[in-house]
Amino acid sequence: MRLFVVTPSFLDTASFLELRRRILEQVTGFDPLLFVVIDDTGGADAEVKQLSALTDTRVLTPPFNLGHQRALVFGLRSLASELRDDDYVITLDSDGEDRPEDIPRLLAPLREHPDDTRLACLAWRTKRRETPLFKAMYAVFKLVFGLLTGVSIRTGNFAAYRGWLAKHVLFHPHFDNCYSSSLISLNVKVQQVPCERGTRYAGQSRMSFLKLVTHGLRMMMPFTDRIAVRALIGFLVGFASSAAAVLALVVLPRLGLGPFPDWAMYLSVLTLVLSAMSLGNFVVLFTVFSHAQGQSFRGLEQRSP
Questions:
Q1: 63 falls within a domain
Q2: What residues contact 120, with CB distance under 8 A and at least 6 apart?
Q3: Is 126 within 8 Å of 195 (Cβ atoms)?
Q4: Residues 195-224: pLDDT tens digits?
Q5: 156 and 290, same structural domain?
Q6: What is the predicted pLDDT for the residue at 161?
Q7: E strands, the chain, in order
Q8: What proportion of the chain, given as a percentage, has pLDDT over 70?
Q9: Are 156 and 285 in the same domain?
Q10: Are 23 and 158 in contact (CB under 8 A)?
Q11: Which domain holds residue 287?
């Protein structure tokens, strides 16, 4: 049985070396066990060159920084031609926050059902070692994500599946925008495995507030159709409620009910206009943004040497 461990690295060579050591200690029964590192610096990381001395490690270098989600897709699509349907694939971050100790539990359902090549096992986060501010922001993100998509999201890059899924499903256009949420948005059989979030082995996280917000938006993109439908429903409800309020403020005084203060009419009309503009613009801009992001990366694997 062959196992491919695919991980993006952005100036995290030291963390990867520790990750590799721990995986070799924790994961047994595979021959060979191969590591694929995507150098997400676009070749600017001088330290990653030392990995060429490792016989079980291969480095793939995209032409420029893609972000950890799209870098994973770059690596997986680049490997697709040499993967067999029955191979095993693990994807995780290289900094240690996805714990090697959890890999055997992620692989267990796949090994119990060796003929089910469409099953994907995702790490379901039960505990995070983050600052109170990050936890508060993450809670707000989960709330907004759930309201817009109807899906509870507590998964990331840590996943395990068979080679068949990597060779076929990973070429869906949704993955041009986001890796982790696309595994949930598509018609893939998913089993969630509870896993705690680990701690970084070395260095510091380079996830800025701007990158975090961008990552959150990209996670929503595979659910554009659901978001558009929910936004349309919200627009119709808001528009109908505002229109009914305006109508009531006009008709009820003529029936002897009232009078109503002038500000009530102004507020109802303003709400009517804003509901039409804001929700309508949201649907249009979100859809255009998601398609633009996907088009910008399409065919990248074929263009790269």
A1: yes
A2: 159, 160, 161, 165, 183, 188, 189, 190, 191
A3: yes
A4: 988 888 987 776 666 777 777 888 888 887
A5: no
A6: 96
A7: 3-9, 33-39, 57-60, 88-91, 119-127, 159-162, 189-196
A8: 88
A9: no
A10: no
A11: 225-297
d(CA 90, CA 7): 8
CA distances (Å), origin 24, targets 17, 48, 278: 11, 19, 52
Q: Are residues 152 and 231 in the same domain?
A: no
Domains in the chain: how many in total? 2
106 and 52 inside one domain: yes
Q: Do 283 and 140 belong to one domain?
A: no
Structure tokens at 241: 């409620």
pLDDT tens by residue, 18-40: 999 999 999 988 989 999 999 99
Tell me the one-letter amino acid at 203: G
Q: Are 26 and 92 in contact (CB under 8 A)?
A: no
Record the tokens describing residue 67, joined without a space: 């972000």
Q: Cβ contacts of residue 107 below 8 Å, gap of 6+?
A: 27, 88, 90, 121, 160
